[in-house]
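Design a sequence for this backbone.
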């Protein structure tokens, strides 16, 4: 494929510098074993701390204080999901029972039609739980949740609505790039039930997002607002990024992960091309640091002093590991080496907190919403979730290639 060849040439140039970062370091097997053991110890302490606090889910840790949420917060599924990954890596009864306990706390969200975040909430928790236990109750929750999510699909627009918030009347129908992630719940529901509308509407959403959300260089806007009568895009803006024209790092990571997943689920080449284009934008960007932990926004005005965002790195890392399985040769090697660099860096003391600190979260230094001055340079459950997912994916990759 032409795109793949061009990308291969472009990205191969990065290889020598990526390799030299890791040549004198410990074997990846050890990095992964130690990082998973660290994650398990912290997460077991976290799980024990809130086991009797009904409905409580960890969220972040700031100014020496724990921040928690109930199930309605968009991040409610990440801690249960993290426990499922840890159980997958170390099938201890204690991890299983905590994974079940915290998953149960998110159950009510299957009926929530007021958010697009049901994929995050339910697939990380119930989806991983169902994958690992085949519990039919979990399957039911996933199918109900997927049906609730589809209630937010507007036929004239051809997209699932992300936010009901109109930003003071500016947005008729706001769709954010993050929404690509929630499509995985629909694909799962299609595979489980055989009902094709789950798949068809997910494809419709991915196609229109591909048309409207991306600039020529494959970077994406955060928010696109549509006219509900004509279905046309009206405004392209940011909410959590530096500016409307900037590339907010987590948005780029959601896009990369979203189109990689959409390719896996459908086999449509256009989604692979899109994921590869996003990867090229990210890996060849002049503001991408050598350790591949992005600044919170690629156009932050104070680079190189801008804050890094561990959550973007973790999401991107997980996506690159998967994407490396869909390409060959140098490109595959490049994606794996970048992911390896990110894992080593996230697992280092610069990003992994010491035991007993950081409120028992695994990683430090994520940025939630900088312009809103919310969750800035703090631990976040989704950074931890995608970090442990990446460790798990990389471990399977090593087992496959041994
Ligand atoms: N979906 C919200 C975020 O990425 O911050």
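Sequence:
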């Amino acid at each position: 494929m032409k795109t793949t060849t061009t990308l291969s040439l472009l990205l191969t140039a990065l290889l020598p510098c990526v390799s030299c970062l890791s040549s004198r370091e410990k074997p990846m097997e050890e990095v992964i074993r130690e990082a998973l053991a660290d994650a398990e110890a912290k997460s077991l302490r976290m799980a024990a701390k809130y086991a009797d606090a009904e409905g409580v889910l960890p969220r972040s840790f700031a100014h020496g204080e724990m921040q928690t949420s109930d199930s309605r917060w968009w991040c409610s599924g990440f801690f249960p999901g993290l426990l499922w990954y840890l159980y997958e890596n170390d099938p201890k009864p204690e991890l299983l029972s905590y994974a079940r306990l915290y998953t149960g706390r998110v159950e009510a969200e299957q009926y929530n039609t007021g958010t697009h975040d049901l994929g995050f909430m339910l697939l990380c928790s119930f989806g991983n739980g169902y994958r690992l236990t085949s519990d039919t109750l979990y399957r039911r929750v996933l199918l109900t949740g997927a049906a609730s999510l589809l209630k937010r699909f507007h036929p004239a627009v051809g997209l699932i609505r992300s936010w009901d918030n109109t930003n003071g009347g500016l947005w008729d129908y706001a769709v954010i790039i993050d929404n690509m992630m929630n499509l995985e719940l629909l694909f799962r529901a299609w595979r489980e039930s055989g009902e094709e509308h789950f798949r068809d509407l997910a494809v419709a959403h991915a196609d229109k997002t591909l048309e409207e959300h991306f600039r020529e260089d494959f970077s994406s806007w955060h928010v696109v607002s549509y006219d509900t009568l004509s279905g046309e895009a009206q405004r392209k803006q940011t909410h959590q990024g530096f500016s409307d024209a900037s590339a907010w790092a987590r948005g780029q990571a959601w896009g990369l992960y979203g189109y990689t997943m959409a390719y896996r689920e459908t086999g449509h080449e256009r989604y692979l091309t899109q994921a590869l284009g996003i990867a090229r934008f990210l890996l060849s960007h002049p503001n991408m640091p050598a350790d591949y932990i992005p600044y919170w926004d690629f156009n932050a005005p104070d680079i190189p002093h801008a804050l890094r965002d561990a959550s973007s790195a973790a999401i991107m890392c997980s996506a690159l590991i998967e994407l490396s399985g869909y390409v060959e040769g140098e490109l595959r090697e490049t994606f794996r080496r970048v992911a390896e660099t990110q894992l080593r860096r996230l697992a280092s003391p610069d990003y992994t907190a010491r035991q007993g600190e950081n409120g028992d979260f695994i990683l430090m230094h994520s940025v939630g919403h900088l312009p809103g001055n919310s969750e800035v340079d703090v631990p976040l459950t989704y950074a931890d979730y995608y970090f442990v997912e990446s460790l798990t994916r990389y471990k399977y990759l090593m087992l496959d290639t041994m």
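The CA atoms of residues 162 and 175 lie 5 Å apart.
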